[in-house]
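From: lab user (bench 3)
To: helpdesk
Subject: output format question, protein + guanosine-5'-monophosphate

Hello, I'm new to running complex predictions and I'm not sure whether the block I got back is the full result or only part of it. Here's what I submitted:
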Amino acid sequence: MNPSDFKRRGLLCVVSGPAGSGKTTLCRAFSESDAEATYAVSATTRAPRKGEADGHDYHFLTRGEFESRTTRGGFLEWAEVHKNYYGTLKSEVIDHIEAGRDVLMDIDVQGAALIRKNADPLIREALVDIFILPPSEDEIIARLRNRGTESQAELDLRLHNARKEMRHWREYDYTIISGTKQEDLATFSSILNGERCRSHRLISKTEGDVEEQGELGM
Ligand code: 5GP
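Helpdesk reply: Thanks, we reran it on our side. This is the complete output you should expect:
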């Protein structure tokens, strides 16, 4: 058997964590440095922040556009977060997984719970979920303040939601206790590389030959 005798379906890597956990930066950094991974750009009704580009950071939609896409079944999951709608379009996920590319999704705990309930075997088999846990509440406050992108009212709402989100870490396959960006990326890469090697994810193109060898007593 040769390495070229194997192929695999892509992973669906769901990453959650409170605001300020660094999950978006982590997903972006990994997908930019790894040829087999891609970042699923979400759709949202929230207004773009300074420097954010449509189609790169988010697909920015009006409430009407978002609702019409939900009605047409365009979303793999969607949820209301911080008073706005956020959702993952099926078009950002399905074809990639089928083609053997790993999809990284940065979504909230409600979205992650919906993905876990998805009945499609393609999604169920591809799923790996990871929670990014900031080391302390003080650290979240410091990271949010440093970001400087939210008003005081938005900061308060994100901190309130962060406390609620952090209670969900046990529902995830893996929890990364956040350290430096480099440490988090190294741990994240180890998890994904391990998951890529799991036997049940591999498809042998010569499976028949192996069974035949087995029958011959090898
Ligand atoms: P932000 O507005 O700070 O970019 O994101 C706010 C929250 O929405 C974050 O917790 C982020 O993970 C979550 N989020 C982003 N995209 C999606 C999505 O497609 N679905 C869900 N359920 N949550 C999302």
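A quick orientation on your result: The chain has nine helices and eleven strands. Let us know if anything else is unclear.
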